[in-house]
Fold this sequence. Notes:
- It is a single chain.
- This protein has a domain at 14-73: Exonuclease VII, small subunit (Helix Hairpins, Orthogonal Bundle), CATH 1.10.287.
- The longest helix has 33 residues, at 40-72.
- The protein is elongated and about 55 Å long.
- The chain has helices spanning 9-12, 15-35, 40-72.
- 64% of the residues lie in helices and 0% in strands.
- Helix 2 (15-35) packs antiparallel against helix 3 (40-72).
- By secondary structure, it is mostly helical.
Amino acid sequence: MVKKTAPDTAAEASPVAHFEQSLDELESLVEKMEHGEMSLEESLAAYERGVGLYRRCQAALEQAELRVRLLSDPEQPGTAEPFAPMPDGN
């Protein structure tokens, strides 16, 4: 008899969950680095990890924007306008 294995939750998590998890980890790394209690080697490793997390978050946001554009105008997604900046400048 073949045993069923537990589903891989990381593989099945939604892109939003991956984004939120990456953002939470990035915020935690920044907080640790701001306290200045890490060695130089630890700081460099944390910075490297942070860059990777930032890029993952940025890619997820770009994919989300593309999905919204495709949903808004599936016939001509290339003519969709970029989102307007928020009032706080972000």
